[in-house]
Amino acid sequence: MSGILMRASVSALALVFVVGLVAALLDAPPPDIALREAVEARMDQSGVKHPVTAVLLNFRGYDTLLEVGVLLLALIAMLAVSASSEDAREPIAGSTDPVLRTLASIGVPVMLLASVYLLWAGAFRPGGAFQAGAVLAAAAVLQYLAGMTRGWAAPGKCLRLGLAAGFLVFIGVAAAQLNGRALLQFPPAWAGSLILLIEAALTVSLGLILAGLFLFVSREVGDSEASKGRDPGPGTRDPVQAAGFGPGAPALRGSVDERDRDARSAGMGQAGDGGVP
Amino acid sequence: MTEWLPWLILLPLLWATAAFLLGPGRGARLAIGTTAVQLALAFALAFELGSGSGAPVHRVGGWGAPLGIDLVADGLSALILILTQLVALPLFVYARIYFAAAAPAWFWPLAGFLVAGMNALVLSADLFNLYVTLEIVGLAAVGLVAMGGTAGQLAAALRYLLATLVGSGMYLLGVALVYGSYGTVSIATLTPLVSAGAPLAVWFAGGLLLIGLMVKTALFPFHGWLPPAHGGAPAPVSALVSALVVKASFYLILRLWLGPFAAMAEVAAALPAVLGAAAILWGSWRAVRAQRLKALVAWSTVAQVGYLFLIFPLLGADQLALHAGGMQVLAHGLAKAAMFASVGVLIQATGRDAVAGVAGVAACLPLTLFAFGLAGVTLMGLPPSGGFLAKWLLIEAALLRGRWDMVIVVFAGGLLAATYVFRVLQQAFLATPGGEALRVDRRRLATLEWTAFALAVASILVGLRGMEILRLLGVGA
Amino acid sequence: MSTGLIFACVGVVLFAMGMAGVLLLEHLLRRILAFNLMGSGAFLVMVGFAQRMDVPDPVPQAMVLTGIVVAVAATALALALARRLHALTGKYTLPPAADD
Known about the structure:
The complex is a heterotrimer.
Chain A: H1 2-27, H2 35-46, H3 51-59, H4 61-83, H5 98-121, H6 129-145, H7 157-176, H8 188-227, H9 239-242, H10 249-268
Chain B: H1 7-22, H2 28-50, E1 57-60, E2 69-72, H3 75-98, H4 107-123, H5 127-146, H6 151-182, H7 187-193, H8 200-217, H9 226-232, H10 235-258, H11 262-268, H12 270-289, H13 293-310, H14 320-350, H15 361-364, H16 366-380, H17 386-400, H18 404-429, H19 442-464, H20 466-473
Antiparallel strand pairs in B: 1-2
Helix pairs in contact in B: 1-2, 1-4, 2-3, 3-4, 3-10, 3-14, 3-19, 3-20, 4-5, 4-10, 5-6, 5-10, 6-8, 6-9, 8-10, 9-10, 9-13, 10-13, 10-14, 12-13, 12-18, 13-14, 13-18, 14-16, 14-17, 14-19, 14-20, 16-18, 16-19, 17-18, 17-19
Chain C: H1 3-24, H2 28-50, H3 58-89
Helix pairs in contact in C: 1-2, 2-3
């Protein structure tokens, strides 16, 4: 009963909110400041020719610096959550559908090329490091889904360096002028090259981070599905078998999972201080 | 001097990333060393402000608002910067020992991002940039809460994440409406533009910003996510998030309330105070009834956040309420960190997280119990603590405006706080159920005990150094 | 009514739907999707309302790009937490909070 009441009241509130705010939007006078004029006036000092890139990496570059930090932070937080399970099992590979595989083997090189183009295009038309990095990440995910690479285990030193490199280069360039001038202040003559340097480093790191957000998680697909003993569909062969674990492997995995789960649920009831030595 | 202002943000970002590169569980010494440097920078900033040079502005990229983003440090920001580093430094020393046996893999990078987010938030003067900093603080806090990996902690972290995302979603829509209405998100540029006669969209924006940030501050009735999150995490994490994270969104409410939305805020002044009073009474009551130690301390945070919101109808030219708010932020931050830290020692010593379980600790852990008691003195508002000064200023401001109802709420909250603090102390002086003395490895716990004690002493000392702190708060306000 | 305003009004509807979804739904995946709907609504308001004169303005466009990346990061973390919880409890719903 209280559920229905809650539903009704939230829906009613949402409706009032929508009607009120739409009325407010329709009624709004024009804004006092036209920031796009300021952007246009300073475009020649920004080092790039596309206004959105100029705002993203120069005028409001500080937002972008912190935003790369947010992505890295989300990845670390994600690792912290899965690392706590001390799951040392081998990462599993995805499907081995021949059609998907062929498509991926053609698609991935094209995507790499597209990513480089997007990076280069960012200076004068829609594009840039985030789009390029997203395409790179999509290529990695496609490869994974096609069974051409494995999901990622806990990152080693090189991978961690790759994940953090873009952020570090960005901070380095941002702080370079700090002695005497301001954070992220680029000399107009150098702005173009510095932005390209940041964007190139970011493309690699963002590609790795975005791929990592998917591929580190994928590690656990086997976890939950194998423990339920679900039969893999006809279209996809069992990923564990495909990865060369032999026909006996799935049953073994299932039992390991069950033991794991028992151990975990036993520890579940205790209070938060699981880490007490 | 504005040249080194960004280092307060860059340093923690750098050590967080370096700790990530070093590998799982590594980076403790780097974190502690760099946080000490940040603390020195924060104090240097406060001295600079105290010498009357006005609030420094750092124009990122050299553009200046509204095209670029400005970093601004006034007295209020300096106060929270000092609080952040002052709480973080002893807690990092504490965490290094606490996690010595089984270090969670990525505590140090997450803690670094949390501190960086706090510092960036406090220095930013741009509504959209503040949204990004809010998300850094929120995601880092959620990651820290979830780090333990038990089902209970994951559920608490998810509840927290959904609440904080709803809060920042509302904040973001508010920012979108502000930008659409005025064409800028710079606080300094907005302040002269917004008036009580603003279009309806701006009123919606103000409401969304206020409620979104209240959700993030866990003000009653949006507090549901806080007790499981703060009460379920490992003790050093509880201490960090309870002392700092809720203060970040409160700081932002205060900043907007006194800044761009000052003209509109008077209409809504009663609302935060009513909710704050409800938070004090309900949070304290739940703390009195709590069975677990950390749940008790977490519910006490819900109550202490309530005091912060009592100040809004009292804000005025005499600055009494502003001083009360600033003092409460500082005193509660230090006291709550001390309380969670000492509770962490008690839990390690007795092996369980229960109020009933602390019987007998008075004999073997007097220092920890003393730290808990001192922190309790601040929460109750007894002299000479910082909490006393905060509540004294609050009562003075309330009396000046004839608000007897608020005075009663403050006294009732103090009495309830005394009840839940003494519940623990009384239990601690009882004999253990079996009658035998509790065996504790005091040498292993010594660092933990002393850091908790240092934080508790600091929460008292800020009351004794009240005049300097209040003068600092006045700079640029 | 300009194109920008239509986008903004649709954004308001999406935001309200998403918010109601986060509050009312139980399945975690749906709640995370609802949060994304809410975020998309806010982004639409940001670009639509600011460009209601149908003159392009790069500043809200850049801010929305930043916002999208932040939303992606938050969504990834939420999904990771939800899947971890599912691996431990076998459920995609939050257990009732036991907080004292």
